[in-house]
Structure formats: structure tokens, C-alpha cells
Amino acid sequence: MKLLLLGKSGQLGWELQRALAPLGTLVSLDRTDGGDLSDSDALAATVRRVAPEVIVNAAAYTAVDKAESEEAAARQINATAVGVLAAEARALGALLVHYSTDYVFDGSGDQARDESAATGPLSAYGRTKLEGERLIAEHGADALVLRTSWVYAARGGNFAKTMLRLAAEREQLKVVADQIGAPTGADLLADVTAHLVRSATADRSLCGVYHAVASGATSWHQYAQHVLRRAAAKGVTLKVQAEQVEAIPTSAYPVPAPRPLNSRLDNRALQSRFGLVMPHWQTGVDRMLDEIL
Ligand SMILES: NC(=O)C1=CN([C@@H]2O[C@H](COP(=O)(O)OP(=O)(O)OC[C@H]3O[C@@H](n4cnc5c(N)ncnc54)[C@H](OP(=O)(O)O)[C@@H]3O)[C@@H](O)[C@H]2O)C=CC1
Ligand SMILES: Cc1cn([C@H]2C[C@H](O)[C@@H](COP(=O)(O)OP(=O)(O)O[C@H]3O[C@@H](C)C(=O)[C@@H](O)[C@H]3O)O2)c(=O)[nH]c1=O
Ligand SMILES: [Mg+2]
User: Fold this and answer.
1) Centroid of ligand 3 to alpha carbon of 151 (angstroms)
2) What is the 8 CA–ligand 2 centroid distance (Å)?
3) Where is the RmlD-like substrate binding domain positioned along the sequence (predicted)?
4) pLDDT value at position 158?
5) Tell me, what's the pLDDT at 260?
6) pLDDT of residue 119
7) Which ligand is closest in space to the CA of residue 263?
8) What is the pTM of this model?
9) CA distance 258 to 122
């Protein structure tokens, strides 16, 4: 089997390079070597040249606040280019694997949302990611669209690493306590992707949209505290201790892009349809911290 991976250098792309390797011949690209999603024509030409049986797209415009002032750029990467991949996948008869986000939802209520829940993005990032999902559906490509949340990895930038840095530099740390979701490891997501690719290439009826998140839920505030507690236990010197992190409401942290308050995603369909178990979010976070600290 021939696979094409786009966005090989991101948090998820890096883990996918590892997880997809045993499935076949893997061609991994980033924007510097033919996999630039800002150039639709070049992207289409690349897919035709490689002619893969599976396309895995880990590239995205993920700067949530910046997207508010650069929506056109975000749309090109998160939607238009995804439409190109879907059209090329359809023409090749290839399976397309793509990632989406909790930010396609408005975050109302306090229940976990399943795949059929109504969308309602609050931000430019969320809107463009939803447009990407819709273009895949419109092109009729066989696809796995995996909505995930709060992604972290040992390699790359993420909230956990930001908290470790700020707690070492600053005297004070304030973190929102009313946004709830599940931190999900790029390593877990990559391994799950490999399982799904094996299953869905053998049985295309498994294609669809799935919520692919770790189990359990937490607030960004509790997540920050958890990270700092583990770091302190490992002897890392911090100026702000876990107990000193101030819990604030979203209204006290003004940023350009509104975030959903309730980012809980129901991962039961993914687990039951593919016979997988999604571990609790703390399992993966602790493993990542053991690796980087
Ligand atoms: N990070 C998160 O918290 C979440 C992410 N997701 C989704 O998961 C997927 C993977 O995200 P993650 O790995 O965390 O994101 P990262 O930001 O770590 O990686 C995104 C990658 O996309 C690349 N990229 C950006 N623009 C282009 C372009 N024009 N052409 C080619 N590559 C480009 C970036 O390259 P460069 O570094 O050169 O810009 C980077 O390597 C995305 O679809 C994202 O929307 C969903 C929920 C949460
Ligand atoms: C740095 C910092 C952030 N925050 C808040 C801002 C925000 O509400 C929350 C998390 O901050 P981030 O900048 O990591 O948030 P953000 O970049 O919005 O994270 C999102 O990225 C995209 C790509 C996704 O798809 C989402 O699932 C989600 O992971 O914490 C604080 O309250 N205090 C702080 O000191
Ligand atoms: Mg961010």
C-alpha cells in the first residue's frame, strides 16, 4: 500500500511518520518539498504524481487567534486545499484521512457531543475547519474525518509546554477554568489512525466522521495544575506552583478568537466501531511529561 502524508513536521505529522510507516510505502511531505497547501495546483499535481491509495492530511492552519485576522489564509489551508485533496482522492479511488476539531461546535451545554450533533463554530479557525469537513463530504471521497481536541506532543508547541515555560518564568499564572475538554496525545491519535486506515481500506463502509479524543475531561486550569504538579514532583524548579495557578473565567482572558466552553466530544462510536479503547487523558499527558522532563 502506498500512503501520502501531508504536514509531516507538525505535532501529529511527526507521530504519523512513525505510526504509518509499517503500513506500506510512505511518502511524507511538508510545505518545503511539494506538500504546500497554500498552492492548490501544485498540491493536486503532487497527489497525481505520488498516486497514493491513502492520503493522510495532518497539515493545518492552527493559529486560532491569528486566524481571526487571516481568515482567507486559514481558509486556503483548512478548507480549499482539503477540497483539492478530496477531489484527487475521489479521482484516484484513494482513502482520505483528515483531522478536524472541537472548535466546529459552539460549546453550549455540559454534555459530550456525538458525531451527529449540530455544529456552530465561534471562530475563524472553527469555521474554516468545518468548511474543510463539508468539502470532503461534497466531493464524495471515501474519508475518515477525525475530530480531536487539545492536541499535545513531546515534539512541537502546545498548552502543556507553554504552562511549563510560563511557570518557570513568571511570578503569576492565570488560567481559564470554565472551558472543558480532553487533552489528546498526537501519539495516540497517530496510532489510532493506523488502526483505522487498516480497517477502512479493507471495509470502506467504515468511512465517516468520528470523535477521536482521549477519555475523561478537564479544564485548562486543572490541566495546567496537573502538568505543574508532575513537573514539581520530578524536581523541576518552578516560580508558580500548581496550587498557585489562579482559576479565572473565560471573560477574564480576552483573546481575538472565542473558544467553546464545552469541548467534550463523545468518543464511543470510534471505540465501538473499530474495537479500540481510548485511554484517559492523564495517561498520555503523564507519558509525555516523563519523556520531556
Ligand atoms: N493542535 C491542536 O490542539 C488541535 C489540532 N487539531 C487538528 O489536528 C491536526 C494536526 O494538528 P497539529 O499537529 O496539532 O498542528 P501543528 O500546528 O503542530 O501542525 C500543523 C502543521 O501544518 C503545517 N502547515 C501549515 N500551513 C501549511 C501549508 N501551507 N502547507 C503545508 N503545511 C502547512 C505546519 O507547518 P509549519 O510549521 O511549516 O507552519 C505544521 O507542520 C490539524 O488538522 C488540526 O486542525 C484538532 C484539534 C486540536
Ligand atoms: C497561555 C494561556 C492560555 N490560557 C487559555 C487560552 C485558551 O482558552 C486556553 C488554551 O490556550 P491555547 O492557546 O492552547 O488554546 P488554543 O490554541 O485555542 O487550543 C486549540 O487549538 C486548536 C488548534 C484546536 O483545535 C483546539 O482543540 C485547541 O487545542 O487557555 C489561559 O487562560 N492562560 C494562559 O496563560
Ligand atoms: Mg494554540
Assistant:
1) 9
2) 22
3) 1-292
4) 96
5) 98
6) 98
7) 2
8) 0.98
9) 6
pLDDT tens digits for 41-66?
Answer: 999 999 999 999 999 999 999 999 99
Question: Is-catalytic flag, 103?
Answer: no
Assigned superfamily of 2-156+184-215+264-279? NAD(P)-binding Rossmann-like Domain (3.40.50.720)
Report ipTM for this prediction.
0.98
Kindly list the distances between the CA atom of residue 94 and the CA atoms of 3, 89, 90, 243, in Å, as whole numbers in the listed order.
9, 5, 6, 50
- Rounded Cα–Cα distance for residues 45 and 88 (Å): 9
Catalytic residue among 61, 125, 152, 223: 125
Do the beta carbons of residue 96 and residue 85 sit within 8 Å? yes
Can you give the residue ranges of every domain in the chain? 2-156+184-215+264-279
Residue 56: half-sphere exposure toward Cβ, Cα within 13 Å: 35
For ligand 2, atom 25, the nearest C-alpha belongs to 101
Ligand nearest to the CA of 128: 1
Of 253, 255, 261, 285, best ligand 2 pocket probe by most atoms within 8 Å of the beta carbon: 253
pLDDT band, residue 67 (cuts 50/70/90): very high
Tell the residue nearest (CA) to atom 1 of ligand 1: 151
Mapped onto helix, strand or coil, the DSSP state of residue 101 is strand
